[in-house]
Amino acid sequence: MNDKPETTPSGAAAGPDAGGAGAKAPETLTERDLFLGLVHSFQGAAMQQMGKTVNPFTQEIERDMPQAQLSIDMLRMLEARTKGNLTSEESRFLAHVLRELQMNYVMEVHEDKKRATEAGGPPESDAPKPGETPAG
């Protein structure tokens, strides 16, 4: 990846403040910034889907383990598809995020099974571990 600024098809700088009435001068985002932002976005989504952070729209803790697995799998796919094309910093960041998410996912599934055993019922989440395909 290179650090050249991203632009729109018209050649204007791309980004959240890249235009509109009263907009400040656009902040130029590099491909590195965009890549790290994408990884961070999936990380935040997965943490929210595992119930680790509050949903900013509902202000509640919500869990959706199959969706969390999908977010983690998307990052694993991104890692595989970009292998050899990332800087060492980008590669380390992505690997760190994946390790953190996978560890949290496994802990959540383990806690679900533990709670179910204590309650005498089926686990709240029978979602497969990240990287596994659902049975069925």
Could you describe the 3D structure shown?
With 136 residues, the protein is mostly helical. It has a domain at 31-116. It is built from 3 helices and 2 strands, in the order H-E-E-H-H. The protein has helices at 31-49, 65-82, 88-119; strands at residues 50-55, 60-63. A two-stranded antiparallel sheet has the order 1-2. Strand 1 (50-55) and strand 2 (60-63) form a beta hairpin. The longest helix is centred in the last third of the chain and has 32 residues, at 88-119. It is flat, with a radius of gyration of 19 Å. It starts with 30 loop residues before the first helix and ends in a 17-residue tail after the last helix.
Mean pLDDT: 82
How many β-strand runs? 2
SSE pattern = HEEHH
The proportion of strand residues reads 5-15%
* Helix-residue proportion: 40-55%
Low-confidence stretches: 8-13
Counted by DSSP, the helix tally is: 3
Taking strands numbered 1, 2, ... along the chain, how are they ordered across the largest sheet? 1-2
Largest sheet: 2 strands, antiparallel
